[in-house]
Write a structure and sequence with these properties.
It is a single chain. With 256 residues, the protein is α/β, with parallel strands linked by helices. The protein has a single domain, classed as 3-Layer(aba) Sandwich (Rossmann fold), CATH 3.40.50. Helix content is 34%, strand content 23%. It has ten helices and eight strands. The protein has helices spanning 4-11, 65-72, 106-110, 118-132, 144-147, 150-160, 166-172, 183-192, 204-212, 232-240, and strands at residues 14-19, 22-36, 39-50, 83-88, 98-103, 135-140, 197-200, 217-221. It has an eight-stranded mixed β-sheet, with helices on both faces. Helix 6 crosses helix 7.
Length: 256
Amino acid sequence: MIQQDILSILEDKIQTVTHLGRTNILAGPIKLPVSLGGETVIFQWYCWMPVADAAAIVHKEKPDTASLVEQLSSLDLAEKQQSSVLVYGDFANSDEALIRMHSICHTGDIFGSKRCDCGFQLEQSMKMIAAKGSGALFYLANHEGRGIGLFSKAMAYLLQEKGYDTVEANLELGFSDDVRNYDDAIGILKSLRRRPVTVITNNPKKLEALKASGMNIAGRIPLWGDVSPFNEKYLRTKIIRSGHLGQSKDRPNESA
């Protein structure tokens, strides 16, 4: 039996979010002090998981917290992937807010790999959001390698070392160039903010997904940088073959 004081702590911090027929359990906000540019910046952190990963939890506005806690140790969540979001400022109500849909990059974000620009984009996005005063960075854990997974990404890297570009490598391994899906992240975004957002991205597919969902997009801010001999081909391929947008800032409401 779960103690009532434990349930009382958790119940106000757990909710369900349903979008396009999929329900996720959202936990948070949680105060998260982050070291950013030599300073400590306070974000609010949320994490979510699909209800399908916890089958006995009732699908309703508020999840069955007792059932969730009772199941938690048996869900093998370390063997799966959960996404999360860092929120800064009064994200729900501010007039302007920045968002970044950031795909996990084990090699770039954690190890600081120079084969890509992901680590740079992650830190720079957080700095931009904090400087703006309001925003959210969505960290999408099932997006490794543009959705093919970490081991498949390692296989793709082996091909890239023999001259294949990042798109060719994915295709040769039987994947599409980009298999990422943003539906769950968009559902969480809509639960946290209904007002317009400006998107930090070079990727038109992210803009298209947000616009198709009915989200009010005020504009786009590009994010290029950290170019080196190790990632020049990768960055060039993103523009030429994956259609990533150039460095000029879009005017508000301009279609991608």
